[in-house]
Design a protein that fits this description.
Blueprint: H1 3-8, H2 12-26, H3 29-45, H4 49-57, H5 59-67, H6 72-89
Length: about 90
């Protein structure tokens, strides 16, 4: 079984937590910026069109969403981002 297959077995919350912990250990501000930029599209994909529009013009709302990026539809929409980050950097 590949590392990707093992990661895909994890819940979106577990993926989020592992990716954020790894980014913190690596001091990878670029990854956090990537997540912030992805949140409006992830909100839209999760059906939260009203929140997606607000996030583009209100950085505070975007930061609030970052703290919620491990729950519900938003976590599911961000799941590919977490998977790709962990696959690329976790065992490097």
């Amino acid at each position: 079984m590949t590392a990707r297959e093992e990661l895909e077995k994890l819940s979106s919350k577990e993926l989020h937590d592992r990716a954020m912990a790894l980014a913190k250990r690596r001091l990878d501000v670029g990854f956090l910026w990537e997540v912030l930029k992805a949140i409006p599209a992830a909100d839209a994909a999760a059906g939260h069109l009203d929140r997606a529009d607000i996030d583009v013009v209100r950085p505070v709302a975007l930061l609030n969403d970052l703290f919620d990026a491990d729950e519900g539809d938003l976590a599911e929409a961000l799941r590919p981002l977490y998977l790709d980050y962990l696959e690329e950097h976790e065992h490097a």
